[in-house]
Every structure is written in C-alpha cells, then in structure tokens.
Amino acid sequence: MQLGTVDRRDDRPPFRQIADQLRAAIERGELRPGDRLPSEATLIQHYGVARMTVRQAIQELRTEGRVVAEHGRGVFVQQPAPVRRLASDRFLRRHRDAGQAAFLAEADKSGVRPRVDQIEVTKTAPPADVRERLRLADDEPVVVRSRRYLADDRPVETAVSYLPLRIADGTAITEVNTGPGGIYARLEEAGHELGHFVEEVTARMPTTDERRRLELADGVPVLVVVRTAFDTGGQPLEVCDTVKAAPAYVLEYDIPAR
Amino acid sequence: MQLGTVDRRDDRPPFRQIADQLRAAIERGELRPGDRLPSEATLIQHYGVARMTVRQAIQELRTEGRVVAEHGRGVFVQQPAPVRRLASDRFLRRHRDAGQAAFLAEADKSGVRPRVDQIEVTKTAPPADVRERLRLADDEPVVVRSRRYLADDRPVETAVSYLPLRIADGTAITEVNTGPGGIYARLEEAGHELGHFVEEVTARMPTTDERRRLELADGVPVLVVVRTAFDTGGQPLEVCDTVKAAPAYVLEYDIPAR
DNA sequence: AAGTGGTCTAGACCACTGT
DNA sequence: CAGTGGTCTAGACCACTTG
To answer: Which stretches make up the HTH gntR-type domain (chains A, B) (predicted)?
Structure first.
C-alpha cells in the first residue's frame, strides 16, 4: 500500500495526518477487511516519528471501530459483522408452536448458526427498575435467567430475564434447559396468555465487562433493549434485559397509525 | 474526593486501576456531573506514576463517554442529557388533529422547549436505499426536507425526509413551513390515508459531521432511526432518516403477541 | 528467536483558559 | 502569569504469536 508523509506545516498534528492517511487507504479499498496494517515499527520508520505518535494514530482508528489490534499479531482492518435484522413479528405464537425460541427462529431465517452459552439460573431480589416494571411487592423474589447468544460462534448478545418466582416456580423456566419454544412456551403452558410486549431501546458505550463478554472492539456501541412481556390482562410476566453488539443488528418495528 | 493507590501486584495494569477508581468515584456520586476530576499533575503526584499512565486512564473514561476534557480547563464529569422517551403512540392521528407535529407534541409531554432549525428543502434524486424503500421508478425525483431538532437549545436530532415529488408537489410539504400538524397532516389533507409506519433502528458512532451538528462529546454513539410511512393500501409515502444523540433517547415500542 | 502490540518512564514544548 | 490538557521524543521491559 502507498503511504504519504507528515507535513510539519500542516494544521493537523502528525498523528492525525497519519490516521487520516490510513483511514483513506481503508476507504479506497487499498486495505481490505482482514488485512494487516503496516506494523508500528514500519510506520515509525516510514514517517520518522516516535512510537507514541503512530500509536495515537492507530488509537484513533480503533476508537472509530475501523481496526482491531491483536496482541502479538498486528492491527487488522475490521470485518463488518454480519447484520441480523430483528423484525417485530419475531415473538409471534407460530414460532413458539414450531418449538423454537425467538433467537433460534431468527437465526434460522438469517442463515447463521446459533448457539447459547454462559447460561445461569438463580433466584434473588431484582434491581429496582425491574421490580417496578414487574410491579412486584417489596422483597418479592424473582427467577433470574442469564445467558449469552452467539451467531456463527461470534458473541452478539447477552440477555438477562427476570420472572416473578410465583409465576415461574415449578416450571422448566427455573431449569437451565427450558425445553422447546423457550420461556414463552412454558408460560403459555402454565396458563398465561401472552398479550403484548413493550420494548425500550437505548444505545450507549459498553462497560468494560460487556466489552469482554461480547468481544467488542474499542469504539463499538451497544444497543440495549429492555423487553417487558404482558399477559392478555395487562399483567407483566417477564422483563428481559438484552445488550447487543450494535453493528450486528437492525431492529425493525411496525407502528399502526391509528 | 478519596483516591486509592496502585497495587503493582494487582492483575490490572496501573492505568486501569486508576481508571477503575475514578469510575467508581463517579458512580458513588463522589464526583457529580459537571465536577472537575483531579488534574493530571495531581494524579501523577498522588499515584506516583508517569504522565502517560494517568492520561491513559482518563482516555479510557473519555472513550466510555463518562468524562469530557476541555483544553486548558480540566476534565469534567459528563452532564447526562435530559432523556426524551419516544412512545410508539407518537404518530397517532389525535396528535395531528391537535395541530402538532410529532416532535413538538412529544416535547410538550416531556416538558422541554422544542426548537427546529437548519431547515432545508430541495428537490433531487434520492440515495439508493431510499429509492428502494419508496419503491420509486428510476430517476423519479423526491422532495428532501432536512432539519435539526433542539430540546432546551441543545441539539438532539437531525432528520431528513424524502417524499416522492408526485405526492408532495403542490402541498406545503415543499415549503419551509409545512403548517400545523406537519408533513403527515398535509398528506392526509391531500387524500393519503396513513396506515402504518415501519421503523428500522440501529446504533453506531457518529461521523465527524454528525458529531459537529449534534455537538456530541467524544465517545457518544448515535441512534439511527429510519422510518417509512405507508398508506392504508400499503404504498410507501415517506422515508424519514433520523440521527439522534443516543444518551438523550429511549425509544419505546409496543409489539402484539399474536 | 524474531516480530508484534501493551505498558511505562521522564522528560520536553505547545495551546488554551483563567486571574 | 500559573495551571490545565495536547502533542511529541527516546528510550525501556513485558506479553503474546508465529515459525
């Protein structure tokens, strides 16, 4: 690939000139996804600057999510994540009847290989915002189901479900394996007719912990979706708090006009 | 405020220990929004480390969007933007009947002072993804309405609407001022009955241009919402491409279960 | 063993902000 | 002016990956 030089009379500081040149090379397609950038040593030599200067240039591209550094290997142009489109019909009954939880049904449709790991089930007191959404009495216990979803072995989402113990107790919901159709199928078997869901969507930068669990590069935001499931009588049955790697998702919602 | 020390036997490198301690102080409320962090010189003294080490710690908090550095003044805990909750009923007819466009109606509800500026109206050929969503014939022209929304004088959202010229021509939609109830009121007056909307939601880091128009700090992601309006016959009438400062918004959607 | 990026030190000069 | 953060230099040692 072709690199320029740093111009000390330029308004931009050297590290930004270097960052701009590398960014341009990526956008021209001279560096393609998966390609390794020139090593720090090469850039130091080429531009005649100190190491911190080229590191700062690379840092800028990392914050933008354009490149990923791999210790001992090099810095690589980011592979765009395969996008998963979540349509608002993904919780329809017919998917549960087919014996599939929402994530699995959705994965099938987009042709990726789904996997679930890091499943943990506990019984405890919920955080305040969950207690409010579930309209729980003080100190009322809940079942907490935590898990991580992977598509083609890349982690894409973490999810934590909260259900009042009085509703979930005695069902497979308190087991690690909930059986065909997932939580919602078990709720309906137990006589709770699902009425509607409310999803609250926000975006933010991940915590250090989330960055680790979702294997996120620097500068990659997350979509936070908090879904509350209500029965036909308007009573909340479940709160599901999910954190998704933002570049991997498009959420689609249908809104009636009247 | 109370600062700890760096422990060289700790698994975490010093810069991360310092970042963790500052982050904890913010979360404990010991450092409140608007407060200045201890200066680099103070931190260097206190922890007995080199300057680059404390800068790396602060860099981590900046990437997380928790603090903002101001050259010559200091590093400050980020002021959380007032959150605007967008409910899925915000496009209901009754708001238009009340003579208010969606943004104004919504602002009233959350008690902020709304403003719209940078309004530009042009006629041109749309980008490919818009042409697809509007099911346009090749080279079919559209009206493009671009504007910026502010809440309490802080920019929170930019929006670009595209409408087929054959639909918008001869209405106030092609004027800078669309009149009471906004675009959708004018469409209904022209005999187009609104049926439903589809919103596609993604999140990403802003471009340099978006960061400037929305006056975003480093490390603040944006929510991108692309809304397509359909008439009762399922024909697309409008595509609206919005970019929102992520921390300022919660999007709320209602999803039927059957 | 050689090459890569990760972390750190101890300085330097500069630009911006406030008094 | 002093105090702040922004940029840069020239080294050092370490941890990880690959051959």
So the answer is: 12-80
